[in-house]
Amino acid sequence: MNEKVKKSWERVLHPETLKTNIITASVFSMAFEMLKSSIIEKIEGFFTNGFDENGMTLSPEYKEKVLSLNKSPLYASLKWLQGMDAIDEKDFKKFKYINRCRNTLVHEMLTFASSGVDFDIAEVFRDMVGLLRKIEIWWFENFEMAIDPEAYPEDLDMEQVIPGPVLSLQMLIDVALGPEEEACKYYDHFVANAD
């Protein structure tokens, strides 16, 4: 048997490797969806006029100022964030790369399981967390803090602020993909403080 084919089958059939690869691809997909939701839903919330029986109603400005930027609501939202200086061109390109990696993992799962991918998954996870953090901090500084500045100390160190979606994403990654001790740390803390 060809050595490359043999190694590929060994990788696919090894139970621990296969489980790890499936979990990695699943967590990556979930993380991407969290980032995507944060990008789209915060802007929709900003342009909400109110609610009706179908949920929130978006103002005509949303269509004019956001959706007109790209046929994809996701990329239109990224363009809007870029126009607001929440992200820059480098971040926009980084997101496109993250999206390409996500598509590779989700749509080419068997290839990933048998021969791996041409990118560093841990690095792309870090990029996802970093981009999510940058966007969430921008919303926090420019809207939440701006609405009620007295609620926050004047010397608030933004490096110490951990937005909820970032914490959730980091916990998901640590629990599912981190070392056993790291994963158990969250569980043990929760159980000890659940009452």
Notes on the protein architecture:
This protein is mainly alpha-helical. It has one domain (3-193). Helices cover 72% and strands 5% of the residues. The chain is built from 9 helices and 2 strands; from the N terminus they run H-H-E-E-H-H-H-H-H-H-H. The chain has helices at 3-13, 15-46, 60-65, 73-83, 89-107, 109-115, 121-147, 164-177, 180-193; strands at 48-52, 55-58. Strands 1-2 form a two-stranded antiparallel sheet. Helix 5 (89-107) crosses helix 7 (121-147). The longest helix is centred in the first third of the chain and has 32 residues, at 15-46.
Helix-strand layout with pairing:
Blueprint (H helix, E strand, L loop, with lengths): L2 H11 L1 H32 L1 E5 L2 E4 L1 H6 L7 H11 L5 H19 L1 H7 L5 H27 L16 H14 L2 H14 L2
Helix pairs in contact: 1-6, 2-4, 2-5, 2-7, 2-8, 5-7, 7-8, 8-9
